[in-house]
């Protein structure tokens, strides 16, 4: 794979730790066969014969991971934002997702979604589809062709939702999921399947039990939702009266981190017991600040999760979130953490810019393995940022330019290059 | 002024009331000599001879008013967002504003500011300058030439700030302000002066007293800051121990609504007494949601102000706020109001999209007179929105397109036309 060996030159930034940003001005990022071999102020002798792509004064950062996004909800992002979660699902989400039984509509919608995701700052994403097989397979095929690296889930739901979106029963849901796994496992190198029970309320116990078995059979990762909204939590308690907490429902069926690498979106109102469970099981939190604001859910206690050593990444949660930009997601994560500090608990220091950057790159990236850094041995995902359209009279250093880009990406920023696994993604 | 008489055709939206959006698809907006004569489904006979500019399927909305923005802070927006107000002022703001004693720097910085404001969705703005006369006059000249309609303030501050930014004493501050007023009052038709004590802590009592006199002499409006941050409020109480509340300091010197049309930025932590004073005096609140989040100030109780009948508009508060987009400002106003409801007071319903739109157009516009609506008799400020770059597979109605544009203006939206007082602003 000689063509995936090269050197990128520019102002290179990546997280060494949560609190420390490595900055190398006019540095060299070495990529050998898709893997980073580190960042250097001068090219080491052993790499002297690699081709150098010089990005001049631009910034080069690791690619970002969107740890929670609903592809079928992309068409209605930014609409109907005046409802809370459960009402919003019934009024907007379920009717829209029902349309994906129509493959023609699904193809039209997913083409736009994948093209826009490709142009975004996300190099990796963990994605919800719908219950529909043909639509979900089309989504995976398009994503695979995009060159982005993704996990994609065919959704399971066999109760408590609109008829048009409910699978007949657990058996049908499980058979359909097994068929999907036979069809897609190993078929695409970039788009891999992930088990996706929508959320506890829409999954019967037999379905959850069957999914636990499928998980073992295929060794799959798992994604779902957890403790997003107060009414939702109460509902889960009513539906699963034996459960010690919401997360315990997933845990009971082997879908909560221990057996399977698991990411749970939101975790806004997790109880102490649930936090302990997440910590012990190494469950990932996909923090979706914009969505939690839009749906009036609240603010997730991310400082608490970081202090507990729980793995955390960021998610846009389209269409609970309206913006597909991970830059915006970082800015929102910092913003809501400040309001958390001001309004809820002054023991919980707000996130710094360095921490938000860590979450968007290394934090979420680690769900994919060694991803989200430029350290030696990491899969090379990179973004080249052109901030010349964000004008200022002031002289800025590289770190200031990066911070400003995070806040102002959509007001004059431009992605000038994007690499996934050492492969360049064509942006135009 | 025949050239300012015309008809715009498109999908026209404006606020009839706080809760009702008027939508006329493929309607005609009639402008006679800069004044709106209303929106019609077909052109009334009396206007048949006016030229029609057909904007096809695009949206046409009233221009927006940015009720609080600091022009000299534009160069460092998006940088150093990890501090609270008072520390942020000393670390970032005051040193940067000191640079405007250098007219060369000021010209470079203000040119960029005015060009970007011109390209934004703001047709009106109420703007802070610095203490510096030549810089502030240059800013006014540039703004006037832009065609935007603005109030601009030379800042007063004679205590409690870095030496480089402190006027020698009250006398010097007042003489300099009087000189500025003699120089600029009536000189520019689009850029008008507004009295601008920075905030109570940086103004001595003799200065405030003198400003009250200047206000009467020139009949000027007033802008300042109020109850943004808890430490700030405590400091004001220490500096002005006789005051019943922060707002009472301005009121005592005739700078709080009764004698002068007044806008106060923030009002995040106003006491009951202060709210009563604002209400009785008709003081405008410039609600700056992004800034209040960035500086960890909190969330202003806008529902309370609306219920009390206090006039409210929106401000970007560059550089406490990072984005100059009033679309973003609307989305943020809705977002933080949801967190206010969730985290502080569930009696205070979140702002709706219609209400945020009202605040950005009519609410803030009324500070300029009959501005912010297309009703008969309003000064005609209009924006033409091209949302074709925000792609979707879904069919949307006009109201949905507008809501989506508010949330996604920076992700594919494009301003296709801008009018102030019936004059077209050239955007490229």
From TrEMBL, chains A, B:
This is Guanine deaminase. Keywords: Hydrolase, Metal-binding, Zinc. The keyword Protein transport does not apply. GO terms for molecular function: guanine deaminase activity; zinc ion binding. Pfam families: Amidohydro_1 (PF01979). Residues 60-391 form the Amidohydrolase-related domain. Gene3D superfamilies: Metal-dependent hydrolases, Urease, subunit C, domain 1. It comes from Schaedlerella arabinosiphila. InterPro entries: Amidohydro-rel (IPR006680), Metal-dep_hydrolase_composite (IPR011059), Metal_Hydrolase (IPR032466), Metallo-dep_hydrolases (IPR051607).
């Amino acid at each position: 794979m000689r063509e995936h060996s090269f050197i990128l030159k520019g102002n290179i930034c990546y997280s060494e730790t949560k609190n420390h940003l490595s900055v190398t001005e006019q540095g060299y990022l070495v990529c050998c066969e898709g893997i980073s071999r580190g960042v250097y102020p001068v090219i080491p002798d052993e790499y002297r014969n690699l081709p150098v792509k010089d990005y001049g004064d631009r910034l080069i950062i690791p690619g970002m991971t969107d740890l929670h996004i609903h592809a079928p909800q992309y068409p209605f992002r930014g609409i109907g934002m005046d409802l809370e979660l459960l009402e919003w699902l019934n009024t907007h989400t379920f009717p829209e997702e029902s349309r994906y039984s129509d493959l023609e509509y699904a193809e039209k919608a997913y083409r736009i979604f994948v093209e826009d995701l490709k142009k975004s700052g996300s190099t990796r994403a963990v994605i919800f589809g719908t219950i529909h097989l043909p639509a979900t397979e089309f989504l995976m095929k398009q994503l695979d062709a995009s060159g982005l690296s993704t996990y994609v889930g065919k959704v399971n739901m066999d109760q408590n939702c609109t008829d048009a979106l409910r699978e007949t029963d657990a058996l049908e849901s499980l058979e359909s999921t097994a068929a999907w796994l036979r069809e897609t496992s190993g078929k695409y190198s970039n788009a891999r399947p992930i088990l996706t029970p929508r959320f506890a309320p829409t999954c019967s116990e037999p379905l959850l039990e069957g999914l636990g078995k499928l998980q073992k059979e295929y060794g799959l990762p798992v994604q779902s939702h957890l403790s997003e909204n107060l009414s939702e939590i109460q509902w889960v308690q009513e539906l699963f009266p034996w459960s010690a907490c919401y997360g315990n429902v997933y845990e009971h069926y082997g879908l909560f981190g221990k057996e399977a690498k698991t990411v749970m979106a939101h975790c806004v109102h997790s109880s102490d017991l649930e936090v302990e469970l997440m910590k012990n099981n190494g469950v990932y939190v996909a923090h979706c600040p914009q969505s939690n604001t839009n749906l009036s859910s609240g603010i997730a206690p991310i400082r608490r999760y970081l202090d507990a050593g729980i793995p955390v990444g960021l998610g846009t949660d389209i269409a609970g979130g309206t913006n597909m930009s991970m830059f915006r997601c970082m800015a929102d994560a910092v913003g809501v953490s400040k309001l958390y500090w001001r309004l809820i608990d002054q023991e919980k220091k707000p996130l710094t810019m360095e921490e938000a950057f860590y979450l968007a790159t290394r934090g979420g990236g680690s769900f994919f393995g060694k991803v989200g850094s430029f350290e030696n041995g990491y899969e090379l995902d990179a973004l080249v940022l052109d901030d010349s359209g964000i004008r200022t009279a002031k002289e800025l250093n590289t770190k200031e330019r990066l911070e400003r880009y995070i806040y102002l990406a959509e007001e004059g920023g431009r992605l000038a290059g994007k690499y996934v696994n050492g492969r360049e993604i064509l942006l135009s």
